[in-house]
Amino acid sequence: MNSLQKERLNYLLTQVRSEAATQAEYKELLGVLNAESDQEEIQADIREYFDEYCPVVPSADPAETSWQLILQQVLAADKPMVAETVIPKSKVRKLRWMTAAAAIVLVALGTFFWINVNRDKRPSVAVKPSESNDIAPGKNGAVLQLADGSKVSLDLAANGVVAAQGGSQAIMHNGQLKYEKGKLQDDNVFNTLTTPRGRIFNVVLSDGTRVWLNAASSLRYPTRFAGSRRVVEVSGEAYFDVAHNQNSPFIVQIINASGKSPASVEVLGTTFNINAYAGDSHNSTTLLDGAVRIIAGNSQLVLKPGQQSTFDHNGNAQLAANPDLQEVLSWKNGIFSFENKSSADIFRELSRWYDIDVVYENGVPNIDIGGKMSRDVSLSVVLTFLKDSGLKCRLDADQKKLFIQ
């Protein structure tokens, strides 16, 4: 496959994975999977894609376990019903990677045939996920607090105007909140957008700045920016794509659990990620593009693209060595990245995403987890992955508690 064909294949896989593919795109991907030529290259490209976006489970038989887990993810997903398609058995590739890849498309089409083509050519079997004692992954949603203190749930909000205040309108459009400027008013009106545990959301502010909020995070901002500075407050984790305005710097004040601001980030126009969860072992600001100034206590740091500043809750900041940008942005890209994280930080991340309480029966286990996997899976799939890393645990879905043994 040439570079354009590979790019198209990755696009089709991503469209299906994000449930955004059209029926024509589903059929196009099926056509690629059933092509008579370039199968070795297609196999390598799909393996590369799965290595990036799907879990790899350590096992005595990795070729078996990893693809079974991918299949479990696919079946656990809530896929829309589309037109029914049946693939003739004569065209089914007798390769495990092909079967796993085709499973994604077939489930999305509303018809699933799992052809078990192991070496001993055992009969075909249907595979179904366990739905008992399980918890669904997080989803898009947030709570908007208006200037008068009233709150609006955005989980199922329809398209249209949510509120008109402070010289702007807050408008929902296809799951995103956007502020559009109206008549300038004298009063400075603030809104607060909060993502509870199990929710993720993004908003476009009145200046065009776009902010993505991870679970258990909040953003406080004026409905319309006025004056020489654009100031917002954030807690938890957020990714910023700041609209450039050289006459009005954009300032993010990081708020800790006590309501104080141990550090702030000043930019003109750039993209960066802030992780400021109160319970995590460290907080950080990571710059993707542009330039930012970190102000923490009596110290200041200027970051270049690819650099990261870590800081504690007292505002002591320092540069981090060789940050992994893919790991930093994994949450925004729909991926769990367990690399270079403590067990406690990983369990806190699961608690926020699945809206569960984690109970340590014998303290926090010291185990080396590592690896990556999709966030678009039920908790039982994640626990299967973690148990293969040596974790002993049990889930009580009714009480929404995970007991670590």
Report what the structure shows.
The protein is 23% helix and 29% strand. The chain has eight helices and 24 strands. The protein has helices at residues 3-17, 23-33, 39-53, 62-76, 96-108, 325-328, 343-354, 379-387; strands at residues 139-140, 143-145, 151-153, 160-165, 168-173, 176-181, 190-195, 199-204, 210-213, 217-222, 230-241, 250-254, 263-267, 271-276, 283-289, 292-296, 299-303, 308-311, 317-320, 335-337, 357-360, 372-374, 393-396, 401-404. The strands form three sheets. The protein has a 19-stranded mixed beta sheet that branches. The chain has a three-stranded mixed beta sheet with strand order 21-24-23, with helices on one face. Strands 20-22 form a two-stranded antiparallel ribbon. The longest helix has 15 residues, at 3-17. Mean pLDDT is 77; it is low at 55-104 and 106-130.
Strands, helices and their partners?
Blueprint: H1 3-17, H2 23-33, H3 39-53, H4 62-76, H5 96-108, E1 139-140, E2 143-145, E3 151-153, E4 160-165, E5 168-173, E6 176-181, E7 190-195, E8 199-204, E9 210-213, E10 217-222, E11 230-241, E12 250-254, E13 263-267, E14 271-276, E15 283-289, E16 292-296, E17 299-303, E18 308-311, E19 317-320, H6 325-328, E20 335-337, H7 343-354, E21 357-360, E22 372-374, H8 379-387, E23 393-396, E24 401-404
Parallel strand pairs: 1-8, 6-8, 11-12, 21-24
Antiparallel strand pairs: 2-3, 2-7, 4-5, 5-6, 7-10, 8-9, 9-11, 10-11, 11-14, 12-13, 13-16, 14-15, 15-18, 16-17, 18-19, 20-22, 23-24
Helix pairs in contact: 1-2, 1-3, 2-5, 4-5
